[in-house]
Amino acid sequence: MATLILSAVGSIFGGPIGGSIGALVGRQIDSMIFKPPAQEGPRLTELKITTSSYGMPIARHYGRMRVPGQIIWSTDLVEHKDQQGSKNGPTVVSYSYSASFAVALSSRPLKSVGRIWADGKLLRGSSGDLKVGGTFRLHTGEGDQPQDALLAAAEGAARCPAYRGLAYAVFEDLELSEYGNRIPTLTFEVIGDEGALGLAALLEGTLSDFDAQLTLEGIEGISGEGSLRELLGVLDPLYSLDCDACDDKLVLRPDRLQSATIALPQAATSTKREDFGGNEGFSRKRVGESEQPVEVLRYYDVDRDFQPGAQRAMGKPLPGQPRSIDLPAAMTATSARRLVGDAAKRAEWSRQTISWRVTELDPAVRPGARVTVPGHPGKWRVSSWEWHDQGIDLALSRLSPLAALPSAADPGRANPAPDLVSAATVLAACELPWDGNPGSSVPLIMAMASSSGAGWQGAALYVDQGDGSLQLLGSTGRTRAAIGTAQTALPPASPLLFERQHSVTVTLAGADLTLGDATMRQLAMGANRALLGLEIIQFANAVPLGGGQWRLSGLWRGRGGTEAAIAMHLAGEPFILLDGSGIALDPQAVGEAPGTLLAALGLGDPVPATCPIALRGIGTRPLAPVHGRAATLADGALRLSWTRRARGAWQWQDSADVPLNEQAEAYAVSFGSETTLVGFWEVSAPELLLDAASFAALLAASPTGAFRVAQRGDRGISAALAIAPN
How many whole angstroms separate alpha carbon 374 and alpha carbon 372? Predict the structure, then answer.
């Protein structure tokens, strides 16, 4: 800088006084250098996007900013083929793509990277979670940073630079399906410095022996692509960056080091008629208004995800073309209004000037120093001085006496991308009873997945057929199912009556998931079906208790042939709302191996979520017979009878028997205790007749025994109906 150079030259030839003279002359030169043009600094445009062009500058970033990047390395798109289908059904082949690439971020080391936007949507949240599959790594740009392992493996260690001094990010196998199977345009929230941003950080590495401990109040981050002169030039109207090189180091804003203002002595007169002031020794005047007054500050608004914003100085419009300062800095709207307001006030008050002559030079009176003048109110700033044989002429400008604006500014309405963390997957699965439709799949196996947060984006679905290996079944989709756990145990009740007395409390996987009420007509049409443990119920009333808990009452019990599970409830058993959501699975792909489990793995899952398949076989085996009767005839014989139920025939519309939906009607009848079998019969009609002798022999062998009737079907046998003999 000219101040530093001329101060050193003046010290050589004139000692301390010569150094002061040189510093003040250099100040005039620096004023011309730092004098901003009509359009200051780099142009503030809409947020730039990631490019991959040669010769583009890589900016320096200070504090917290949202910046684009420069792609410096990339692989070709990698195709992933996913084939799904059964042995007898159609095969569906889907393709997805991923890519690995590196993006240069800053030519100055960074502390960290926060959020990342891809095509305007969040790719990486504030907690560091990626919203799509892939891996993110940051190289902070230190002088000893190693090579990236991926780049070194792809290009060879001998040909791969470590990019020391350059902060860059690496994406490995980033899924591109969300972005049209192409590398998206990226912007990054970078953190170059922690704590308050100061002017010293901007000068670090450029100058030596300087003192610039000035906090840039209101600025949270700033970027610079060009020279340091451009960056300081755009800051000077807002912070008055006076330079002082009178001592052994360069000092910016020397007035901050003053403990108090300096009182100037009385003005000295001059004997030369052409000098100002005459017998008074001073001259005061008010300069004309600027042709380009400072009125508008354009910046990046941190409250609107760093979108460009503009604030105008308060007060009446000044004559002339308003001067707009484009500051590539991140700040709040209130800070921007305060900065531009203070700059406008300083410019207005600095129109009051005084030329003051002294005969003795105080070394503390330097460019930028704050002084008071006898007989003139207020505080003044030393703009320049000039050495004459009649004395030293000081040029002073008035300092603004007003404080910063206390009022807040409105940044405007923002529509930020939601930052939702992908929580862990909650998985449940069951087989549903057959609905009687000949065209529907039998068995119908459903997988329902959910999560505690709305940021969950689905998961890959797998099957473990008991050998520990996972086979891909597909994807769960992004719709969260209403699943959870029971907090209380539902007491037993009759499946033939509407349950009005008891209720059950369930907790859903997410607090934002909801349940609804249903009328009796809606229940009759199948509304509010749910699997609780191993029993299918329907509920008429759902009362929210807060925190994702719901109390269910007004129950229909034992639906879909699950009467046997009415007395088997426990606290903590799974709850699944059977509202049609979920994924229907291919039975052949799932298999029938014992111990089969389903697994789901999403972005928020450190390990796969697993679950068994509840009600396995309920869609293929017949329903248990009902209305068992045992009648002793006059001759001592016993006549057993029961009523069959047809699989899939849930509505008895015309009071007539419905088709059996099996190849043949067959029943297995047994007699005995729980552990001992005494008799066994195979019959093809819903009755069994035993003569008196046979019946007496059975009772003699097992006095407390009972008959059990199960229907045989094409693909299984039903649960047993117990009939006690009279």
Answer: 7
Q: In this predicted structure, what is the pLDDT of residue 42?
A: 46
Q: CA dist 520 to 503, 515, 540, 562, 702, Å? A: 17, 16, 7, 20, 46
Q: Is the dihedral of CA 531, 535, 536, 542 positive or negative?
A: negative
pLDDT tens digit sequence for 303-357: 999 999 999 888 766 666 677 889 999 999 999 999 998 888 888 888 899 999 9
Q: Please tell me whether residues 445 and 590 are part of one structural domain.
A: yes
CA distance 724 to 38: 102
Smallest CA-to-CA distance from 382 within 359, 364, 403 is with: 364
383 and 429, same domain (yes or no) = no
Q: 37 lies in a domain?
A: no
- Cα dist. 319→344, 425, 533 in Å? 13, 64, 79
Whole-angstrom distance, CA of residue 244 vs CA of residue 212: 11
Number of Cβ within a 10 Å radius of residue 79 = 10
Is the pLDDT at 454 greater than 60? The verdict is: yes
Task: Determine the angle formed by the axes of helices 333-349 and 228-239, rounding to 10 degrees.
Answer: 80
- DSSP output for 5-54: HHHHHHHHHHHHHHHHHHHHHHHHHHHHHH---SS-SS---SPP--B--T
d(CA 108, CA 142): 8
Tell me the three state secondary structure of residue 408: coil
In whole angstroms, give the CA distance from residue 722 to residue 495.
16
Average pLDDT in the chain: 87
Distance of alpha carbon 686 from alpha carbon 709, whole angstroms: 9
Are 257 and 300 contained in the same domain?
A: yes
Between CA 456 and CA 102 the distance in angstroms is 27
Q: How far, in Å, CA of 203 to CA of 208, rounded?
A: 9
pLDDT band at 290 (very low <50, low <70, confident <90, very high): low
- DSSP state for residue 399 in the 8-state scheme: P
CA 301 → CA 83, 220, 291, 434, 585, distances in Å?
Answer: 47, 10, 28, 58, 49
Q: Is the dihedral of CA 377, 379, 382, 387 positive or negative?
A: positive
Instruction: Name the token pair of 331.
Output: 């700040």
| pLDDT at residue 256, as a whole number | 86
Q: Residue 161 above 90 pLDDT? A: yes
What's the angle, vertex CA 398, arms to CA 395 and CA 402, rounded to 5? 165
Three-class SS string for 549-600? EEEEEEEEEEECCCHHHCCCCCCCCEEEECCCCCEEECHHHHCCCCCCEEEE
Q: Are residues 357 and 506 in the same domain?
A: no
Q: Distance between CA 357 and CA 341 in Å, rounded?
A: 33
Q: Which residue among 363, 398, 433 closes a domain?
A: 398
The helix/strand/coil state of 377 is strand
**Stretch (H or E) spanning 2:** helix 2-34
In this structure, are residues 113 and 169 in contact, taking their beta carbons and an 8 Å threshold?
Answer: yes
Last residue of a domain, one of 174, 191, 208: 191
Domain total of the chain: 4
C-alpha distance from residue 501 to each of 539, 555, 565 (Å)? 13, 9, 19
Cα atoms in the 13 Å half-sphere on the side-chain side of 557: 23
Q: Note whether residue 334 is domain-resident.
A: yes
Asked if residue 287 and residue 168 are part of one domain, the reply reads: no
Domain identity same for 429 and 567:
yes
Alpha carbon distance 154, 145 (integer Å): 18
Q: pTM of this prediction?
A: 0.78
The pLDDT assigned to 19 comes to: 40
As a whole number of angstroms, the distance between CA 233 and CA 242 comes to 11
Decide if 604 contacts 129 (C-beta within 8 A).
yes
Identify any residues that bridge with 638 across adjacent strands, giving them in sequence order.
Answer: 632, 690
The whole-angstrom separation of Cα 260 and Cα 312 is 32
Q: Is 391 helix (H, G, I), strand (E, B) or coil?
A: strand
